[in-house]
Amino acid sequence: MNVTATNHDEVSALLTVTVEKSDYKETVEKQLHNYAKNAQIPGFRKGKVPLSLIKKQYEAGIALEEINKQVSEALNAYVNEKKLRLVGQPVPQPVNDFDHNAESLSVAFEVGYEPEFSVDLSKYEAPHYKVEASDKEIATSIENMQKRFAERLSEDEIGEDSYVDLEISQVVEDDAAGEHHHHPKNVTISKDQKEAYDLVKKLKKDESVKISKEELQANEELATQLGFSKEDAEHLHHQEVEVKVKDIYSLKLAELNQELFDKVYGKNVITSEEELKARVKKELDEYFQQNADVHFVNKILQQVNEKEDIKLPEEFLVKWLLFSNENIKSEEQAKEILENERNIIKSQILEGKLMNDNDIQLDYAEVLGQAEQLVRNQLAIYGIHHLGDDEVQKYAAEMLKDENQLREISSEVAMAKLKDVILKKSKKKETKISHDEFLEELKK
Q1: Is residue 15 one of the residues assigned to a domain?
Q2: What's the angle, vertex CA 10, arms to CA 6 and CA 13, rounded to 5?
Q3: 170-221: pLDDT as tens digits
Q4: Is-contact 194 160, C-beta < 8 A?
Q5: Coil, helix or strand for 186?
Q6: Residue 385: pLDDT band with limits 50, 70, 90
Q7: Which residues share a beta bridge with 175?
Q8: CATH of the domain at 19
Q9: Does residue 67 belong to any structural domain of this protein?
């Protein structure tokens, strides 16, 4: 078995794997003898089928399978030994006259790989924002706690401080054919959802108003407030939608007292309003800081992407796209897709290189830990906070059996580690900023 490389340039080559008959002959013969022992062919007793007949029927298939296996192993071993970081997958060249009895066989593969380069993170600098929660944000957060445990007070009319439960359903025309099972949507609005609030503010409980499909499509904000995405509004089956008031109520906020502190944080963890404000500020600051760290890392990665000149194996990538995607019919189409994907491929190469150079390794325990956190977050949405660690781990392990989930969660863990490296090695322009200013910065 032998692998030879013919380089096209510094990022692509033709790798030729040559297999000698002696490499696979013994394995193939062993398998044929096993077949002969167990074959059941009409006219012969089990185990008494002549080997010549077995060879005629099965030898070519068994040999092909063994040759493919050995070629694949040799190719992987070569790539690992030479430490080639492949871009895309090897593209096999067609083999026209395959003869498993030939003394030697050659199979060639086009490969593309990453160029040799290094990134010095200490050359890069970006603003690293220190985002502090304002008194207003702390107050809003505390009010949300009070709302969560508030008492609902029923009302007869919609007022300034009312919350309104709405049921939204499509109106089926009298002459409409076929079955119509459209589940009504249920949304709750207040004066903050101005368009929807203005639509229903004169209605009482159980009264309704109809709006046309055209009105919904023309007023995207109203559609969103009534629970329709832009796409939903465009694909409504009927001409009218009925908006019905199901309930009107106001909230009597839970008092800021020990009972509320215990409900939110556990018994006697917080014992005064001052402690509550300090705790909420700390939590908000930590949350804002996480977002500011991510913003800093993204800015650095953006600069690295713009400034580092990386040669891509473009000719190879065109061949790979044509080989791996049956929807791509021509070289022109492949080139166009490559042009659109160029930045994404470059980003992936850069991130992979940074992970490699900074020895970022993943182990299963870390990936499982991240999956457990995701399970807890999902359960918390449904108000489940008390599931035991063993149960959570069981759900997480189940989640990781799905290859896509495994890939996605592993990528999150790897990116979190890369984030730490970039935060440590790049230059930070420390800048104090309010959360509102930070949100404006993100919009840019």
Answers
A1: yes
A2: 30
A3: 888 766 555 555 688 999 999 999 999 999 999 999 999 999 989 988 999 9
A4: no
A5: strand
A6: low
A7: none
A8: 3.30.70.1050
A9: yes
Nearest alpha carbon to residue 341 among 323, 314, 366, 360 = 314
Nearest residue to 4 via CA among 22, 16, 12: 16
Scored b (16 or more CB within 10 A) or e, 58-70 reads: bbeebbeebbeeb
Q: Do 297 and 372 have their domain in common?
A: yes
Classified as helix, coil or strand, 210 is strand
Give the whole-angstrom CA distance, residue 395 versus residue 37. 46
- Domain span at residue 403 reads 121-129+272-443
**Any idea of the CA torsion for 393, 394, 397, 399, to the nearest 10 degrees?**
-110
Distances in whole angstroms, Cα of residue 144 to Cα of each of 5, 84, 139, 172: 65, 54, 9, 39
> Residue 395: which region, alpha, beta or left (left: phi > 0; alpha: psi -120 to 50)?
alpha
DSSP state of 48: -
Question: Poorest-confidence range of 373-382, 406-415, 431-440?
Answer: 373-382
Contacts 24+ apart (CB under 8 A), 186-190: 186/227, 186/246, 187/225, 187/226, 187/227, 188/163, 188/164, 189/163, 189/164, 189/225, 190/161, 190/162, 190/163, 190/164
224 shares a domain with 102: no
CATH number, residue 173: 3.10.50
Which residues share a beta bridge with 170?
A: 241
Give residues with Cβ within 8 angstroms of 203, minimum separation 6: 158, 209, 245
Classify residue 315: in a domain, yes or no. Answer: yes
Question: What residues contact 308, with CB distance under 8 A and at least 6 apart?
Answer: 117, 119, 350
Asked if residue 262 is part of any domain, the answer here is no
**Helices (H) and strands (E) in the chain — how many of each?**
15, 11
CATH number of the structural domain spanning residue 339: 1.10.3120
Of 123, 160, 111, 144, nearest to 4 by C-alpha is 111
Q: Using one digit for the tens of pLDDT, what is the confidence trace for 354-374?
A: 999 999 999 999 999 999 999
As for how many domains the chain has, the answer is 3
Checking DSSP bridges between strand 240-252 and strand 208-212, what pairing results, if any?
antiparallel
Handedness of CA 59, 62, 66, 71 (dihedral sign): positive
Say if residue 338 is exposed, middle or buried (CB neighbours under 10 Å; 0-12, 13-18, 19+).
middle
